């Protein structure tokens, strides 16, 4: 089952393979009504997509994905309906992007010590000058012939607990929730079936968490059932999306593939700060 919306989409502004223009074009071709651009730690792709979709049947929701927590517990928050130019949000994201550069560079140095050097200039080229992430390092490893694909790079070397992995700098999720709200938006917890639920979900709910990503390609039917129950307990809006980064290895395009009810968008909009 597919839907007319996708609330978790990445572009070349972070670690996606498609530009905002390509994503908007594909969303229109598929008849999507709503599209949330949620690039990692940047709103540039969202702003571009909003402008490109103006005057079309597609509403682009300006969003962002922000990594929070630390070495012991890594979580991701999806911000929806944020003001992409809000100064507090931009300051937060700028600092996080700078931290990403140092972290990815340190991971590249670890790879070199493990006998798998990758050209740093090539990693930057793959990022197209935007937000650096582990996928860019993984793509460089594929090009060098160290691994067969990005999945192997993460499974053997770059994933949490693997030899080249370096934890994120700790970020207080409550601070991020406050900034998303100050920017006029609402926040949902991303892919908890994959990342795990936070130890203090009730604390995040009390701090302003509004949604829970229930529908995601990595979630099993059992995950969906369990997460729907949790969403009801905490009165969280069940959200979902494809976590689209571009066509998969088999060429499949998952944009709009998750069965997310269309009323989800209005439920999120209603909870935005007035």
What does this structure look like?
The protein is an alpha/beta fold. The chain folds into two domains: 189 residues, Alpha-Beta Barrel (TIM Barrel); 58 residues, DNA polymerase, domain 1. The chain is 43% helix and 15% strand. The protein is built from eleven helices and seven strands. The protein has a seven-stranded mixed β-sheet, sandwiched between helices. The chain starts with a strand and ends with a helix.
List keywords for this structure.
7-stranded mixed β-sheet, 274 residues, 15% strand, TIM Barrel, 43% helix
Number of helices: 11
Fraction in beta strands = 15-25%
Succession of helices and strands: EHEHEEHHHHHEHHEHEH
Q: Tell me the Rg in angstroms.
A: 18 Å
Sheet with the most strands?
A: 7 strands, mixed
**In which order are the strands of the major sheet placed?**
1-2-3-4-5-6-7
- Count of beta strands: 7
**How many angstroms separate the termini?**
34 Å
Number of domains: 2
CATH superfamily of the largest domain: Metal-dependent hydrolases
The CATH architecture of the largest domain would be Alpha-Beta Barrel
Structural class, from secondary structure content? alpha/beta
């Amino acid at each position: 089952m597919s839907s007319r919306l996708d609330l978790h989409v990445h572009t070349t502004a972070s670690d996606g393979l498609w530009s905002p223009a390509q994503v908007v074009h594909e969303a229109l071709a598929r008849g999507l009504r709503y599209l949330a651009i949620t690039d990692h730690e940047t709103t540039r792709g969202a702003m571009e997509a909003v402008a490109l979709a103006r005057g079309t049947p597609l509403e682009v929701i300006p969003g962002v994905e922000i990594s929070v927590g630390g070495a012991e517990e890594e979580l991701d928050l999806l911000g929806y309906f944020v003001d992409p130019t809000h100064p507090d949000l931009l300051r937060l994201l700028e600092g996080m992007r700078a931290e990403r550069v140092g972290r990815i560079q340190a991971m590249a140095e670890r790879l070199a010590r493990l006998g798998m050097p990758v050209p740093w200039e090539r990693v930057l080229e793959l990022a197209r000058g935007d937000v650096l992430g582990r996928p860019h390092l993984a793509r460089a490893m594929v090009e060098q012939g160290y691994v067969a694909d990005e999945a192997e790079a993460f499974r053997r070397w770059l994933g949490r607990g693997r030899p080249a992995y370096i934890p994120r700098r700790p970020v207080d999720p409550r601070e991020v929730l406050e900034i998303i709200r100050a920017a006029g938006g609402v926040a949902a917890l991303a892919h908890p079936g994959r990342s795990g639920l936070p130890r203090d979900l009730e604390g995040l709910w009390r701090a302003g968490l509004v949604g829970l990503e229930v529908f995601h390609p990595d979630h099993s039917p059992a995950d969906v059932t369990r997460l729907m129950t949790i969403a009801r307990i905490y009165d969280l809006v069940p959200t979902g999306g494809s976590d689209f980064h571009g066509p998969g290895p088999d060429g499949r395009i998952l944009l709009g593939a998750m069965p997310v009810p269309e009323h989800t968008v209005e439920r999120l909009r209603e909870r935005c700060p007035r």
